[in-house]
């Protein structure tokens, strides 16, 4: 579901649908992969086409936890439909990576 990529601090989410059914596994894997040792963590959402409010809650909680440890967590390669949900919920500025080019990671 979530796997490390060749780029340090970048993790690929390999599901198209993040909903109540996948919530428990998503949270467990997120917790096992993310560590505040990194200054910036990117979650590659290139495959994600649907996201539930429960998953948004998990992401916000994790972002706040990591921020306390000096680490920022962002969503990256977000499809337009998911980006729209983030804008509607006013979470786009909080969760979306704005300066991905400066990290040296190519976008999909």
Automatic annotation (TrEMBL):
GO terms for molecular function: anti-sigma factor antagonist activity. Coiled coil: none annotated. This is Anti-sigma factor antagonist. Gene3D superfamilies: STAS domain. Residues 18-108 form the STAS domain. SUPFAM superfamilies: SpoIIaa-like. InterPro entries: STAS_dom, STAS_dom_sf. It comes from Leptospira idonii. Signal peptide: none annotated.
